[in-house]
Amino acid sequence: MTDQPQAQADVDIFQQTMEKNSQRASIFEIVLESTLFQVIINILTLYALFGDDIRVAAFRLSADIVFDALNITCLIMFSSEIILSVIVKEGYFLSFFFWLDTISTISLLLDISLFNQAVGLSGAGGQAKNTAGLARAGRASRVGTKAGRVVRLVRLIRLVKVYKSANKDDEDKVQKLLSQRRQKRKANTVEPQIQDRPDQNNPGQSEEGETKESKVSKMLSDSTTKKVIIVVLALLFLIPLFSVDYFVSPPTSMLMQSQQFVKLAESEASTYEDVKNAYDQIIIDHSGIDNSIVLFTSPLYNYKDFPIYEHEDYPNLRTDEQDVGAYTLDYEVLIKTTNLPEAAIAGFDKENPDVVGILSTRQAAVMTSILSIIRTIFVSIVLTFGAMMFSKDSNDLALRPLERMIDKINKIANDPQIVTEMAVIQNENSNETVKIENTIVKIGTLLALGFGDAGTEIIRINMKKQGDVDPMLPGIKKVAIYGFCDIRNFTDATEVLQEDVMVFVNNIGDIVHTMVDRYLGAANKNIGDAFLLVWKTRPETYSFEEDNVIWHDKQYIQTLSDCALISFMKIQCKINREPKILAYRQDKRLQARMDNYKVKIGFGLHMGWGIEGAIGSNYKIDASYLSPNVNMASRLEAATKQYGVPILISEQLYEHFSPEFQEYIRHIDRVCVKGSNIPVSLYTIDMNVDNLPPSNDPQVKYKDLTKEELKMLLRQKKLEIKEQVESGEFKGAEHLLENKDLRFLLTGFKKDFMEVFGKAFQAYLDGDWKTARAMFQEALKIKPNDGPTEAVLHSMEETNYQKPGDWKGYRELTEK
């Protein structure tokens, strides 16, 4: 037998190559590949792409020196990266990527204001002293700006580095996770199982299931990089098309208008009216147009006919949103003409002899901004599409399924029951990752169904903590409503139905569980012929003071109590209406054993504290509740046979029903149940199940729905109830009248009978048995064969209708 190899580091050709390089230039590689250096480079890359636009859009001239410093920092850092790459990376020097990095780095020079001024691509800061200086500075600035925008696009190539760096981080996370699992597996595995051995048909696969980087992988990586560069180069050609110069002509300069006015004013042939009309006409012609006039003034502004024209929007315009035209009016020439009044010439402003006109280019600036936004969106869409296209396979086949698995496991860890709402991915051609994902959902669903709501904490705690599974956790004291259901004549049904008894029980269980779940309860235990159902109260709605429960939200507990009883009423109706249950009335085997057989269920409802936790051992556990209150629900169900009613309710629960709901419930006895010395009042609600109309067959009603759609429909009904309860809109008494099933059950509800029985029962409790007997007999005339009435009369008959000497207002039940 061949000995198994000792655990050791996996052989990886690429890691070995990296180690050889590191031996040659270890210090440089450490710096180049360090997380800090890469983070700084990526941040500076993003700044290099957007910094100059941010400078122009958000800051003034005084901040240029700061941005120059940042640009010089970028230049130094990018140059350092190129030098380190030349030293560390084989084949990098003079390669395609070397030239791209070099060009993008050199392009940073155009973002440095001092450099642009030195080479004449922009004017000096501040305002030009005359119109000629202003024009020269404007032309130089426009040339520099256009050149900078075109060359700056080359820097988009650096996005490839950011993308590859982000991809590398994702790969490192996955590899680290796989490495941790591999090391743990190696430490715990003595001999590898057959299914864990490498696939002989896939030599690129390691023993742990990882895929080593092969030639195909390397080719794919190079191809991806080239595609990114092709996209970027396409952007270099397309982005200039989104310039405002392609769509809007530059606004007409006011220089010609100002010059025209000066010539007219200085001409001896012009009249005063000509000058005045020209002044007014310039303002009129340039008002109300796209690039309207916002300011027009002359040295003659002190004269009434040449006032300064200033539009209200002028103070709001930025400098680059103004088209300025200025021309000097010569005072010496002007005084020699006779076409202007002496008062106008006398008010001539010699300090400001220029005729100045300013047009608003706000509209063009807005369009430029819009086009810039479109350009940015276009670039983002192209690059996003490119990134999605390049990483689609790895995302679809590995990363996204892994993220979904992690997300689902986290959700299950926080709320194990939520897995029942998760759907498996339906795909006949699904790969291994999808199958694993579906398996997680299936295992989680089986876990949730097996443990139930009571096992939520057990699952949650064990999934969150590190180490081995420990199901034997301390119990948790909680307050809940406990419901116990029992199928009548189950022993006979089992003997008759044999193998079919499982279908029989599950058909009933489906109705029981569905109705309890819909009305905010949860199934806990299925005990053959019986079901334990629980309505847990929210922890924040109560607190304990010694053994007493102090309620903080009475409306909530009233609503939950109403829901518990309503769910049992719905069950009672469903088993007398559903076709799959009614079919057992026609089953010849059952009818042969029991005449006129019908499926019947007894119910017991009680409220109190219980200890929720795991019962059993490390071999087998059940998540359930231990408490005398759970036993009380069982005893109440058993007592339903003595009273001839389908349901008995304890006074502890009755007290929490809403007042309107209590009107439908009657007090039928006060007893000490067997095994208890504490008297408890018993209540029931009268339900008419005779001659109920059958429901529509679900297989016909929902024939067009898939299993998943039917599941969603049931969940939606539950959510409607839950939303009403949480918002405080759910009213139990109103629901009795609105729901069709519940209306059927309450058909024939007799208030006069309730009144007579109530008086009779009160006389019974008070010890006035003579009156009680007479009134009970009167009640039987209104409602013959009433079980509770006959049960109380029967107990009175045992003492010849005479109150016992030690009568305390209650009696002991002789049966459990």
Automatic annotation (TrEMBL):
Q: Which GO biological-process labels does this protein carry?
A: cyclic nucleotide biosynthetic process; intracellular signal transduction
Q: Which InterPro entries match?
A: A/G_cyclase, Ion_trans_dom
GO molecular function annotations of the record: monoatomic ion channel activity
Where it mainly occurs, coarsely classed, is membrane
Query: What keywords would UniProt list here?
Result: Membrane, Transmembrane, Transmembrane helix
Q: Which Pfam families match?
A: Guanylate_cyc, Ion_trans
> Where does it localize?
Membrane
Q: Residues in domain Guanylate cyclase?
A: 481-637
The keyword Transmembrane helix appears for this protein: yes
CDD domains xrefs: CHD
Where are the annotated segments for Disordered?
Answer: 174-218
TM ranges = 30-50, 65-84, 91-110, 228-248, 370-390
Cellular component, GO annotation: membrane
UniProt keyword Transmembrane present: yes
**How is this protein positioned relative to the membrane?**
Multi-pass membrane protein
The family database entries (PANTHER family) matched by this protein are listed as: GUANYLATE CYCLASE DOMAIN-CONTAINING PROTEIN, OXYGEN SENSOR HISTIDINE KINASE RESPONSE REGULATOR DEVS/DOSS
What is the protein name given in its UniProt record? Guanylate cyclase domain-containing protein
Q: From what organism does this protein derive?
A: Paramecium pentaurelia
